[in-house]
Design a protein that fits this description.
- Helix 3 crosses helix 4.
- The chain is built from seven helices and no strands.
- About 70% of the residues lie in helices and about 0% in strands.
- By secondary structure, the chain is an all-alpha fold.
- About 15% of the residues have low confidence.
- It has two domains: about 30 residues; about 110 residues, no CATH class.
């Protein structure tokens, strides 16, 4: 193996590491999202989609979903691999779209914003947050993602 090949492989490995880890917290936090944590993250992402839909008329962009996921993980001290993040992020929009079709009157602006506390954490005392959590849990259980 030539010196160029070794350095090229090393650079490729570093690029892959930065893509997969995105920051050092993934390296120090264990991959500890159990079923409850995955359900809470999924619920947070679905609720974030509803906030975006209420304020802009559009669902969250991919960049905003990534940022919302990072925010939730940092706030809750969670760690997850890229497969879990992608799976949860993609399911969040699907669930939000299905939920909107089934229960459109339930999503007036007051109820959507009541899902969050002042620190942008979900308020699970809110009936709509509880309903979204239950649907997210059902979705994860039906796909056997636990």
């Amino acid at each position: 193996m030539t010196a160029w090949t070794r350095s090229h492989l090393r650079a490729t490995a570093l690029n892959l590491r930065s893509l997969l880890c995105e920051d050092s917290t993934t390296l120090t936090n264990p991959l500890n999202l159990d079923l409850r944590a995955r359900t809470e993250l999924l619920t947070y992402l679905v609720a974030s989609h509803f906030i975006a839909r209420q304020t802009t008329g559009e669902w969250l962009s991919s960049d905003h979903v990534v940022e919302s996921t990072k925010l939730w993980l940092a706030t809750n001290g969670g760690g997850t691999d890229i497969l879990q993040r992608v799976m949860l992020a993609s399911r969040a929009r699907e669930i939000a779209e299905q939920f909107e079709l089934i229960s459109p009157p339930a999503f007036d602006p007051g109820q959507v914003t009541s899902m969050f506390c002042e620190n942008l954490r979900l308020d699970f005392r809110s009936p709509i947050a509880q309903d979204i959590y239950q649907r997210c849990l059902t979705q994860l259980l039906s796909t056997r993602w636990y």
